C-alpha cells in the first residue's frame, strides 16, 4: 500500500528543501521530488553558490595583480582557470552534499525524477530511466523555481552562446564577452570574466543598468563598473547573433529603432532575466491558475486556487531570490503544520556580489516619489570611513531613506565592500519599524564598515534638526494625516494586534500599518464582524481578512489584515481595579513577551515619574485607549531600552466601563494624577487623527 | 584677548573630536586642544591605535592568503615576498589621510583647534570643559619599554624588520592583533598571559575556541604565566617568566617584546587637583552622566570607567555635548560591541555565558558554525561560529558572540536587535514556541480527552477507545494518586501529555509508576517534547523512589532506541523499565 504523505514538495531548491526540512521538523511526513541528480536547485548547482565562488576567487586574482604591490606584497599572479573552476565545483559539492545530509537526517523521502501533478493529492514522478511512480500526499508544494529567459532568435548552446549556467564553466577566458542584459546575473558574471582577462561589453535594452534598483545607486555603479573596464551599450537591443570563422557576430539596434551595428564576440552570455518554470507540471489539468507572466497565483497563505496545492519561490510573484524562496518555504511548512507562517515581503534584501557589492532593502527614491511619500535622504561615502580607507575599498556609499515626518526608515541602499553583510542590520531595524535616529544612536564598533551605516543614519536625522525622540514618537503614534486620508492604495502592510482580556474573550483589534509610507494606527472595535474574524483561524493571532475602520472624520478605511511573523501576541493584565461600580483594567500587549516584561519594569516606582499617559476617549465608546510611554527624561538620560519604537508601548484598555471616567481614574491611580491628561475628543472606533493631535500632552 | 567658549574639549581622540563635531552642530562655540605634534588630531586611535593596526592587519592578512591559499583558488602566485617599508608606508598614508579628515571636520563645524606646535600659553575662557584625554599604555614593572626592542603597541606598528621571535606579554585584544600581524609576516610569536585564558573578559567558549584557532595558525601560548623581568642583550632580550601562582622562573629569548597588558587613564598634568576633580583608586575620573565633581567640568571616554573603546568614547562625546546643550543624551552601555580584528575576527556584545551564570539568569544558547554556512564554505572561511544567548523565558537576546570572518560587521545586526530589546526569534525564526510542561489538573479533562482521541486515531484504535470525559473525571484526574500525569501546554492549548498510575509492587511493597500513555500532537513534534514529558515522569518517580515501567511493542525499534537514550532498560517481553539511580 502506498504511504500518504502529509506533504509532497516538488523541487529541491532553496525554497523546496527548506520547506521540506521545516515540515519534517514540525512532524509532517514529507516527500521531496527532484529531477536533478543533486539537491539544491539552481541556487546551489548553477546559481548563487558557484557564481559566488568564482566572484570570490576572481576578486582576489584581480586584487593580487593590482593592489598588492601598494600594500607591500610582491607577487606575480597567474591564472589557473582549471583550478579555479575546480575550487568552484568543490564549493558546490560541499553545499549540495550538505543538503542531501539534511534531507536524510530529517527523514524526508526523496523521489528522483520529474514531478507532474496528476490530480490534487497525487504526483507522478518520472525517473530519468522512464519508470513512473505515484506519490500521494495531503498537500503539494510547487517549488519548481525558474529558468533562463530566452531571447527570440538566439539559441543558447552553452558553449559559446551561454546562459548563466554555461558562463560558470567556460573552458578558457574569452577574449571578448558580450553580455546581453545589465541585471544582477549579467553584471556578476561579466565582472568575473573581466577580472580574469576578458574584454566585456554589456548590452542593455533600457537606458540604465539594474532596472528596479535605486536610480542614484545604479548610476554610481555604472560609473564604477566602467572605471573597472566594463563597456556598456545602453538603450540597445540585440537582434541577432551569427557565427563566422572568427567567432560570433552580434547585431545591435537602438532600443527605439534606428541604424543597426555589429559587434564581434567570442562568447555571448544571455542574461535577460528568468521566467517561472512550471512546464510539464500538469498545472492546466489540475486547474491551477497562473498570471499573464506564467507565475502561479497564490493567496496570502501560498495556496493556489486548487485546495491542497501550494506554490512558493520563483514560481510565484515577487523577487526571484533564494532567500525569499527560503522564507516562503518555512512559512508554508508552518502554515501546513497549523502554525502562523508569514513572510514580510517589505524587508527582503537584495544583493549584487560584484566589487564593490551592492545591497538594498525597502523602497527606492523613485518608488517613494511615485507614491508621494515625503522622505529625507541621508548619505555617507565609504571614502570617509576609516576601515574602508585602510582596506582601500572606498568605492561606494550608504544611503538611507527615512520618512520626513516619522523618521521611520523606508529604504537602505549600499554600494561598498561587504554591503551584503551590512544590509542585515538595516533589514533588522526595518523589521522593528525603526527610525533613522534609532540606527544613529546604536553603538557601532570602530573601526568597521558598519559605521558608515550609522553615519548615513546620522545624516538623515541631522537634517531634521534634532527632533526630540519623545516628541517624534508621539506624533508618529498619533497617526498623522494618513489615518484620515482617503488613500486606498494597497502597497502596504498592516499589522493587527488582537486585544484579549484575561477571560479569553477578544474585544478589539489594534491595527497599525503603513499606507503610502505613512504610519496608521487604529482600533477596530468589537463589532460582530470583527469578533467573528478574531475567532477565525489560529487562536492567538487570527485577524486575517478585510476589515473596515471608521475614523473620526467619517473616513472609512478598508484594511486588509495580515498575519505578521513576529506576532506571537502576548497580552497581559498589568493591573485591575474596581472603581466605583466599574471594573477597569490596564492591559498591555506587544509582539513579544519581553514587551510585557519591559513594561512591568517600567511600572516599578522608580520609573513611574518618567511615564506619561495620554487618554483618548469621549466617554461613550466601549473601548477607550490610553497610550503610555516613557519619554526622554528631562535633561537626563535616555533610559535603557526606552523610547525605541516597538520596544515599549503599552495600551490601556477599558473593559466593562460605560464611561471614560472609570478608566481614567484607574490610570490616575496607577500612574499618579498629574501624569494623566484627558484628551477631549472622540475616537469612535478610530485612533489618531487631527483632533487628537490637537490634544495636549504634559 | 580671549573669547568666551561654550565648551573647550581637551584631547582630540575619537571621544574629543566627536564631541567637538556635535558641539558645532548644536551651535555651541567650541574649541579643542591637542598636544600631539604637527596638528595630528585623532588621538591614539587614529595615530597609533585602531587605524594603523587595522591597516597592517588587512595587508598582512592578504599577504598570508597569497602565500597559503591562492593556489587552491586557481591563482598561481610564484614567490610571494614582503616589502615591509611599503607596507608600513601605506599604513602611514592611511593614518595621514584620516587625521587630515578630522582636521577638515573641525573646520567644517567651526571648532577652533589649538594644537602643537602652535601652542603657546593661552588663557581660554569657557563655560564647560570636557576632558577627553584618553589612556596610555600600562607599564610592566621590570620590563622597560624603549620602543625599539621592548615596545608598546606604538612601537609594534613600526618594526623596521620582521622580528624572528616576538614575545607578546598579555593575551588581550592588542596583543593578539599585533601578534597576528607579525606572525603572518614571518615571526614566531609567543603570547604570555597571566590568567588561564586569553581575552579574559570574553565569553569562555569564544576565548577557548579562538585560542585553538590561533594555535592552529602557529601562535604559541604560555597561559597562567607572568613576566618578572627583562634583560637586554646585544641583539636579543632575555625574559624571565614564572608561573602566575609562583614557582620556578624560566628564561625566554626574544628578538622583540611587546608589552600589551592593558591601558590606564591618562590624566597626568591636567591640573585635576586644582579644580577638585575626583579620581578613583585606579585613576579614572569619577563622573555621573559625564559630570565630574567640579562644576562645569565633564569627562568622557577612556579616562572614565567603562570599556576603553573608540566607539564608546565617540558615543560618550556625543551624549555629553547633548547634555551640555540641555538635550537628552544617553549611552546604552549594555549594547557597546567589542571587536578583535584578527583572522578570523571576534566580535561580541552584551552578556557572556559566565556573566549570566553568575547573575543567575536562566538562558538558552543558539549556536551556528560557519562550517555550515554556504558562503563561508564557498570562500573557504569556515573557522568560527555565531553564538546567541537569549533569556530562557522571554527569548530576549542577552548576548551575541561571533568568531568568524567579518564578525566585526556582523555584530552590528545583533547590536540593533538588542537595542530594540529584540528576541532571538527576531533574528532567526528558528526558536521553538514557548511550551510549558506542568502536572495535569482537573480542568484539563476535556483537553486531555481530545488528545487521547488523537492518540487513538494515530494508533488506529478509535473503535476500542473506552475513555469518555465523564469517566476520566471520575478517576479523580490529577487529584487522584491513582491517576496522574503531565501535560505540555502551548498558548493555553494542550499539545501533549504523559499519564501514569501510581501504586506499589505486589511483593516488595516498593512504590511504582505505570506509564499509561504518552502522546504529542504531530505539529509539535521535533522539539523533544516527548522526551521532556518522560523526564518529568522520571523526576516524579525519583522523588518518591519509584521505578517506572511501561509496555512497548517489540518491533518498535525507534521507540525502544528513544527510551534507551533516556536511560531506560528494554526487557525482551516488550516492557521498558526505568529506575532511579
Automatic annotation (TrEMBL), chain A:
Domain Pyridine nucleotide-disulphide oxidoreductase dimerisation: 348-457
Coiled coil: none
Domain FAD/NAD(P)-binding, chain residue ranges per copy: 5-329
Reaction catalyzed: N(6)-[(R)-dihydrolipoyl]-L-lysyl-[protein] + NAD(+) = N(6)-[(R)-lipoyl]-L-lysyl-[protein] + NADH + H(+)
Keyword Transmembrane helix: no
Family under the similarity heading: Belongs to the class-I pyridine nucleotide-disulfide oxidoreductase family.
Record-given protein name: Dihydrolipoyl dehydrogenase
Automatic annotation (TrEMBL), chain B:
Domain of life, per lineage: Eukaryota
Domain (N-acetyltransferase) ranges: 435-581
EC top class, as a word: oxidoreductase
Cofactor: FAD
Keywords assigned by UniProt, alphabetized: Disulfide bond, FAD, Flavoprotein, NAD, Oxidoreductase, Redox-active center
Cofactor note as given: Binds 1 FAD per subunit.
Record has Oxidoreductase as a keyword: yes
Catalysed reactions, as listed in the record: N(6)-[(R)-dihydrolipoyl]-L-lysyl-[protein] + NAD(+) = N(6)-[(R)-lipoyl]-L-lysyl-[protein] + NADH + H(+)
Enzyme Commission designation: 1.8.1.4
SUPFAM superfamilies registered for this protein in UniProt: Acyl-CoA N-acyltransferases (Nat), FAD/NAD(P)-binding domain
Gene3D superfamilies: 3.30.390.30, 3.40.630.30, FAD/NAD(P)-binding domain
Keyword Cytoplasm: no
A Pfam family per the record: Pyr_redox_dim
UniProt similarity note: Belongs to the class-I pyridine nucleotide-disulfide oxidoreductase family.
UniProt miscellaneous comment: The active site is a redox-active disulfide bond.
The protein's name: Dihydrolipoyl dehydrogenase
